[in-house]
Amino acid sequence: MLLTLAWGSLFFPGLFALCTWALRRSRPEWTNTDCVMISTRLVSSVQAVLATGSGIVIMRSCSDVITGS
């Protein structure tokens, strides 16, 4: 569990930094605020898709989601 937390703590800020850097390089006419806003929305979308996917996996693998059996 701690390993997953550690990877998530590295993955999402890293994705944000990579997106911000790439947008600044590919769109120099955009302001810093524009790049940060788009990067934030992209990272939030990725996090939502991953959370939805993990929820679907949990629902399909358990016969009773409440008790986990």
From TrEMBL:
<protein>
    <submittedName>
        <fullName>TLC domain-containing protein 3A isoform 4</fullName>
    </submittedName>
</protein>
<feature type="signal peptide">
    <location>
        <begin position="1"/>
        <end position="17"/>
    </location>
</feature>
<keyword id="KW-0732">Signal</keyword>
